Amino acid sequence: MSLLDLLGQVQAITGGKYGLSDLLSEDFIREKTDFASIEQLLKELPIDINNVADVQRLSESDLNVFVKEHSSYDTWKGLLAEAMHFLDNRQ
Questions:
Q1: What percent of the chain has pLDDT over 70?
Q2: What superkingdom heads the lineage (predicted)?
Q3: 88: part of which helix (H) or strand (E)?
Q4: Confidence (pLDDT) at 4
Q5: HSE-up of residue 68 (Cα within 13 Å, Cβ side)
Q6: Helix (H) or strand (E) holding 77
């Protein structure tokens, strides 16, 4: 999955209303995952996010496993959908 694929999923789920940084706010990360910050979450990902090749090799199933292990959501898309609702309710 490429970074563009990930961003495309965000756009599809939010209808273009929000970007990834909007959805994965510090408040959402603290309340809905095992992490205290987005930095901690990114550090714990099973890839080096600064390495383009690693990001491109990341499969959606790998991302789903990570999400399931560190939140109450079964999938990456489920986490994003909840993040959108979380953000909508905060505004």
A1: 96
A2: Bacteria
A3: helix 76-90
A4: 66
A5: 8
A6: helix 76-90
Angstrom distance (rounded) from CA 25 to CA 38: 7
The answer to whether residues 14 and 21 touch, using CB atoms and an 8 Å cutoff, is no
Task: Please state the domain count of the chain.
Answer: 1
Q: Identity (one letter) of the amino acid at 55?
A: V
> What distance in Å separates the CA atoms of residue 9 and residue 62, rounded to the nearest whole number?
15
Residue 43: CB atoms within 10 A of its CB come to 11
Angle between helices 3-14 and 76-90 (to 10 degrees): 50
- Which helix (H) or strand (E) segment holds residue 29: the answer is helix 26-32
> Can you give the residue range of the structural domain that contains 28?
3-90
pLDDT in tens, 51-78: 888 888 888 899 999 999 999 999 999 9
